[in-house]
Amino acid sequence: MNRLGHYVFRSGKSICKTDIHARSFASAAKTSTANPQDDKNRPNYSFLSNIFRGQVESKEMFPYPDVLSEEQKETINSLVDPFEKFFVEVNNPAKNDETSKIDQEVINQMQELGIYGMQPAEEYGGLGLNNTQNARLCQIVGEHDLGLGIHIGAHQSIGYKGIVLYGTPEQKQKYLPRLTNGKQVAAFVLTEPSSGSDAASIKTAAKLSDDGKHYIINGSKIWISNGGYAEVMTVFARTSEKQLTAFIVERSFGGVTSGPPEKKMGINCSNTTEVYFEDVKVPVENVLDEVGNGFKVAMNILNNGRYGMGATLSGTMKACIEKAVNHANNRLQFGNKIKEYGAIQEKIARMAMLQYVTESMSFQIAQNMDSGSLDYHLEAAISKVFSSESAWYVCDEAIQVLGGMGFMKDTGLERVLRDLRIFRIFEGSNDILRIFVALTGIQYAGANLKELQKALKSPASNLGFLSQEVSRRAMKKIGLGGTNLSGLVTPALKPQADSIAQCIDLFGKSVEALLIKYNKNIINEQFLLNCLANSAIDIYGSVVCLSRATRAVDQKLPTADHEVSLTKAWCAEASERVVANLSKTSSKSYLELFREMRNISKTVCDNEGINTTGII
Ligand code: MYA
């Protein structure tokens, strides 16, 4: 059984985990109590976690956050124009794609603009932007050039993010200034030939030297963005059988070499290579966070940067939609502009809805993070999954609207489609993130259920908890006390809020029913876990839109009516999908279908290909 499967039901406690790094995680938590994220007893304000218990935690959802002060708004607005200008006048995405490189002039200008240091504080040479401001600039990057975006994102969204999040003052002082000015480039060095989604299985080893002054790193990594020229790397290596540790490694330490640039389907101007470590001597001062905390460091770097992908791709979708609409507004066929035809209208409406949801999610997460949220990892994972799939869909539909023109290189959409393909794969594949969301949510719901079961065994000493649970359930049973979102939204959206509230109740019931039916074996039911994840994605997307559109109405924005319209349409489709997905989790015919599909897959795999008799 894979590690991702070891989540549910620890005997005695709530959840079971038998994987090797679980213990290191536990000990890490003990040594790092200073980090509030590690405090397991604090309240969990994640909206997503809570819907797995059938409950709504609205603190981070309503009202839609507005975190920027006037001064912060001015700062970001003053950066938008020069960024746009750079992308329009200096950078040439088609040329970058064709030559698979970034011209020195482009790099010089990016250094001048401060692109290499968007978030670190000014004392480290950065622009000192918060996540919300950063998200705005990510949008501009995504609008223009995803390949360049990966070069920039691999550098700061994950490459040196570990130093920002976990670095000591000395590490920050030593490394950040040379990275924020872009004179040196950073990389995030995790993936190995036999360790992709299963990040905890890395083999690269770091051995403490006899004098205790260095770690000696040996191993090889693959698919490292900026891997060919990064001078500073966040490297993850095994310091014992059970422990991973994160290190800051300089190429100049010696023993670090890179393979040739990989030939890829897209994001061609970004550099992707293998990186080899041969007896690389890394001073002990270069351990990031605690020895043994490497898995947590890796996950939190990824969690922390994921909203950026959503923001970036909301920009990409905006650009695709503009191209599609420009064509639809001008192209005459059968005597009419093609925008007059329902088939095109449906596409454009759906593209606009997907962009709205994506943008709303990423800015909600960014702003919550800026307000000190600690529980955004499920939201961030969903934002990554949703944005990468939506952007793919939107770009594909834009090509369809443009017809033959869309297929031509000159239109620029085929490059974007190629660039977009990897977003569903890297930074945590969407398949693994769906399972991660479902299992993490179930783990949270399971803890509650276990507590209830335990309380039922000694009711006298658990009266408070039991009476709360019993009255919550009893009220729901008689149709009272169910989820109610209608008080949180603008009146025009109350019906949509009601139908999403029903979805949340249904979701909580479905999770509980699955837990009762499958107990710890739920970890093996990935067909069902996907149904839960897809429902969670739709519910989250809907609530985010309800919140943002309400803000638009409350603030009397000129776009308020349109935003309400987008939200109504989105919620109508999303709530239908939720009901359909959740009904699959208890439907006999779907369980039969899933069994059938398992068998088909097994036969095809056993046969090493399709197993049908040809027609002739
Ligand atoms: S970099 C490579 C990316 N690689 C991955 O993302 C790897 C994916 N794998 C995983 O995430 C993990 O291995 C999974 C867990 C999720 C599969 N947050 O037993 P476990 C906790 C917080 O489940 P596993 C790239 O592609 C968990 O609760 N905690 O672990 C760059 C548990 O805690 P406890 C987490 O089964 C491309 C413990 O860890 C998380 O082994 C370039 C163990 O969990 C989490 N997420 O696997 C991109 N996960 O013990 C460029 C687990 O307390 C960027 N845990 O219960 C571009 C950006 C955009 C552009 C920007 C423009 C400017």
Structural key phrases:
alpha+beta, 56% helix, globular, Butyryl-CoA Dehydrogenase, subunit A, domain 2, four-stranded antiparallel sheet, binds tetradecanoyl-COA, 10 strands, 616 residues, 20 helices, Butyryl-Coa Dehydrogenase, subunit A, domain 1
Describe, in plain words, how this protein is organized in 3D.
It is a single chain. Helix 7 packs antiparallel against helix 10 (294-330), helix 12 (377-402) packs antiparallel against helix 15 (430-457) and helix 17 (494-518) packs antiparallel against helix 18. Among the domains are: 70-180, Butyryl-Coa Dehydrogenase, subunit A, domain 1; 186-295, Butyryl-CoA Dehydrogenase, subunit A, domain 2 (Beta Barrel). It has 616 residues and is α+β, with helices and mostly antiparallel strands. The model is unreliable at 5-33 (pLDDT under 50). The chain has a four-stranded mixed beta sheet. The protein has a four-stranded antiparallel beta sheet with strand order 2-3-7-6, covered by helices on one side. Helix content is 56%, strand content 9%. The chain has helices at residues 20-31, 47-51, 70-90, 93-99, 104-113, 131-144, 146-159, 161-166, 169-180, 294-330, 342-370, 377-402, 404-407, 413-421, 430-457, 463-477, 494-518, 526-554, 560-584, 588-606; strands spanning 186-189, 205-208, 214-225, 232-240, 243-250, 256-258, 272-283, 287-288, 332-333, 336-337. Strand 9 and strand 10 form a beta hairpin. The chain binds tetradecanoyl-COA.
